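This section describes the prediction task in plain terms. A model, or a person checking by hand, is given the sequence of a single protein chain and must write out its three-dimensional structure as a string of tokens. No templates, partner chains or ligands are provided. The sample shown here is typical of the held-out split.
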Amino acid sequence: MTPNKPKRVTLKQPTKQLEIPLILWDIDGTLLAPMSGGENEYEEAISWVIPNLPLERVVTHGKTDRQVVEEYLANEGDELHVAKVLERLDIMSSRYETSEHKIPALPRVTDALGITGALGYRNALLTGNTPARAMSKLRGAGIDCDRISWEESFFGINARSRSSITREARTVFPDRPMVIIGDTVRDGEAAADAGIAFIGVETGAYTGDQLLEAGAIATVGDLVRGIEDLQIVLNREFKTCGKQEALR
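The expected answer:
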């Protein structure tokens, strides 16, 4: 059965609100549980566009949707095929809003978004997902999408690497205080490429030591035990004098 085509995600141009510190959250492995067999959806979409194409498994951790698709099609296909596979992935994304395919939110993610918002910070995304896939994943997990500033978020639909996304974020907001929160070494490396601070969460495939080696200013084990530590690090990084009362 062919999934229903998702609603189009229309994003406004980001506005340069320099006075509001911006937290750029990764999705998979950071806000949501790491995907099990996530490679399979790429292979399914590719097989729909180019039937019977032999595929060699690609590591997806920390990569953008376009980057993964281009690696799969390195020896076959062209830009038109890549565009069709990305479109197919968007169509397939509606499955994340079903009970069978939804990806659960990690514990206390909603609390973390509430705390950081109450501290006066802006929550947005920096993800390798396309906008449609990002929204479907969060909706399916039961996360209130109104907690996310979509117009200040950055996506991987046209990015061939994660660093392309972080550099775009720094170009759009050249002087704005920003922190990236993610679970992979590529998050850290991409943050460093753009001069953005990185906080690692040990809820994905990498250890705290690996995230620190990738440039993290700090790591937290998860958002259950580490939520207060995360608040302290953010306050220190942003040098805020605003609301700093922990919400429990």
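For orientation: The chain is about 35% helix and 10% strand.
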